[in-house]
Amino acid sequence: NKFICNCGSYSIETKKVVFASHYPYFLFPLMLPLKTYIEKSYIIITKENEYRNFSCISSNKPIISTRFYKDNNNIYKISLGSSHNTMLKQNDEENFKNVQREFNIKDESILMKYSNTDIITSDYIPYIGEIKENMFIACGYNTWGMTNSLLSGLILSDLIKSGVSEYKDLFNPNRINISQLIKFPFYLINQIVSYSSSKLFKNKPWYKDVKTIKEIGDDISVYTDEFGIEHKVKNKCPHMGCGLIFNEVEKCWDCPCHSSRFDIDGNLIKGPSNKNIKVD
Length: 280
Ligand code: FES
Fold this sequence. Notes:
Blueprint: E1 3-7, E2 10-14, E3 17-19, E4 36-48, E5 55-57, E6 65-70, E7 75-85, H1 92-103, E8 110-121, E9 127-132, E10 135-139, H2 145-162, H3 168-171, H4 178-200, E11 210-215, E12 218-224, E13 230-234, E14 245-247, E15 252-254, E16 261-262, E17 268-270
Parallel strand pairs: 3-10
Antiparallel strand pairs: 1-2, 4-7, 4-8, 5-6, 6-7, 9-10, 11-12, 12-13, 14-15, 15-16, 16-17
Bound molecules: FE2/S2 (inorganic) cluster.
């Protein structure tokens, strides 16, 4: 048995495959949407005069965290907050303001703002291991990407080389436990509500420069930029069909269901979608 991976103009034949793509694009065999939810958090970078050698993170939700960073020329502070399930609190501008308030950040000191999404598993343990014969996965890092990706590398290389890892059962992606069983109905409802509300309410009350209209059966969203130029996209995520939300701060289209992201002209920025949302 072998896999054939098509990569643009060439293909690779291999006996084993590892999916390490943040959120895998498929529903089966892992059924990931029914075992996880997506958490979005907001980060503001400011320039500082003094370096302080500490980093901290809250233990309560919504998580806030802060740390300092310096390069050869400058000192920066990285502040994160307003984390939430992507189903809720979808006004990005408001979420960035929350981080500003939380850390008492003045407008003039902001260098950069960006948001990030993480996959949160129902038992807060990543899925790392074999999902079916010779098919491996590493995902669901629960906001601890640097630590858990390193761990994934160690576990998967052991499993591929020898089929044995002392962590195999703990991180087994096919595990079933109480936490998953209890949360399963909530995650199922979350997916249904998330999908339906994204389809029903495409014109958000806080939008300033975006309008969604019907054109030959498609929902077409139009963003008008500061020069008056209109940018049109199809407001339907190619992954599983959810409606998209305009992120007015970062100027992009975000999918609330599994966090695909597209630029203002519909080009794919990140998956699980592997297609654009350009208007033909
Ligand atoms: Fe899955 Fe959009 S529907 S990322």
